[in-house]
Predict the structure.
Amino acid sequence: MKKIDLNKTVFELVSEFPELTEIMVSLGFKDITKKIMLNSVGRMITIPKGAKMKGIPMENVLTALRENGFEVALSRKELLKSYLQRLNKGESLESVRVDFVEHFEGVDYDEIMQAEQEMMEEGVPLREVQHLCDVHSALFHGKMATEQSHEESVTTTNQNVVLATKLRDIDGHPLQTFYTENKALKALLDEKTSLREKVGKSREIAIHYAKKGDLLYPLLKVKYGIYGPSEVMWTVDDEIRDELTRLVRDTSDSDEWNNRAEAVLQRAAEMVYKEDNILFPLCAANFSDEEWKQIYRDSLDYAPCLGVQPNTWNEAEQQEKSLPAHEGEIVMPGGHLTIEQLRAMLNTLPFEITFVDAQNINRYFNEGPKLFKRPAMAIDRDVFSCHPPKIEPMVRAIINDFRSGKRDQVPVWMEKLGRLQYINYMAVRDHNGQYLGTVEIVQDMEFAKKHFEK
């Protein structure tokens, strides 16, 4: 059998195997018969690159070469892609596994992600890659993990897994929390309870998936150009979450419900495997220490998942968050804006906004039409001077309560000019609880009234 190396250029291969010209023409590479093209472009591109340019499926090329007596030497990545493509075309898992075991003694998890990402670059529909995301786990489990748990497999030579394990062992580190939540889900799935009870409890995994979607996927995609997980795994997360919700709402007791429940719980279990062995090691290999600390701080806004209470990461807690300078902008922990952006944003909000400082001085009114008029000349005046005598005692009482900490807000519902209004007076405090002033928000609620009257 003739062995062909697809890493060589088209010119090199045709020179080595003249009979290749006829095969390539039959596949659609008609320019290969033109000597000028062969001697110019043919010296620069490989068959895989040429197939991509012409939109010819690589699987068709491989099939034609094998049918004509060629043994194709593919890179590990190309072989992985070919296995995934064969699975997607309906070939049995066991049939593909035979070839997989024959050609691989071990496989790096990164190669799986790169293969999926390249397939998307080549135009493979996301839906197909999503399907592969489920199927390839079953394929790789046997060879990659040899059915070991994560704790048993961390002694492998995969550097990313080893690095992820080191981060996991840091008390309070985000990876520690993510891995612990996965351990809790696996324990839940192994419980000797009813399917309905497992489905109900498993819905909490939505919190885990939300953290991935907010904190991990975007950083991998935007900063590091690794978009495979965000394109594939994120969508699968959503499908698992949505199916669990549908099953909880479906009170029927049928074989169809049981089959759906078993299928979605299996998908959730496979996602645990992919996170532990692919996603988290990938994050560990790329994210900086400062990025992990920011992920930790952001993750504090999420509710506990599956009973897992995150530990405190003392190093992240003790480090003060530094705000990068942005010339000509207002810099805050939540971001940075130009004066014009901030002004436009505050004026766009459907509220009348008034801010009175700790010395009871009017400091700010947003612009635009107002039900309660706020003349510009009232800025820098005592707030009490803006109210009639009969109202002033009430205003003083509210602000005094805010200042003392007795109250934090005073909501008021009223009708004015035939329209329902919601007015909320709120104490403004710094992160230490120190009183900074009072904000008054006025919102026309007529739209809500009409909505609920329908």
Q: What stands out?
A: DSSP finds 21 helices and nine strands in the chain. Strands lie at 2-5, 70-73, 329-332, 335-338, 352-357, 362-365, 409-416, 419-429, 435-444. The mean pLDDT is 86. The first helix runs from residue 10 to 16.
